[in-house]
Amino acid sequence: MWQLQANCDETNTELFFSKLESKVAKAKALCGTCAVTEKCLQFAIDTQIEFGIFGGTTPDERKALVHN
Questions:
Q1: Predicted confidence (pLDDT) per residue in 8-36, tens digit
Q2: Which residues span the domain enclosing 9?
Q3: CA distances from residue 67 to 15, 24, 35 in whole angstroms, order as listed
Q4: Per the structure, how many domains does the chain have?
């Protein structure tokens, strides 16, 4: 499972579901160094996850990717 290879596997998930810009930036930075970012992003898009940071993207950023 790709999730076990993710940087966030042992990180408090609250970081990835915060609306605070500082936490969003920190979550995105963690995603930026992750080996499975692309798989995570594809998972979020495929399953239409509407909340949280996945694959280094916010829900609005994922929506924009899908609609382009």
A1: 988 999 999 999 999 999 999 999 999 99
A2: 2-67
A3: 27, 22, 26
A4: 1
- Does residue 43 contact residue 51 with C-beta atoms inside 8 Å? no
Contact 27, 53 (CB under 8 A): yes
How far apart CA 13 and CA 53 sit, in angstroms, is: 10
Tokens of 37: 């970012």
Contact partners, residue 41, CB within 8 Å, separation at least 6: 54, 55, 56, 57, 62
Distance (Å) of CA 53 to CA 8, 36, 65: 11, 14, 14
Taking CA atoms, 49 is separated from 42, 53, in Å, by: 10, 9
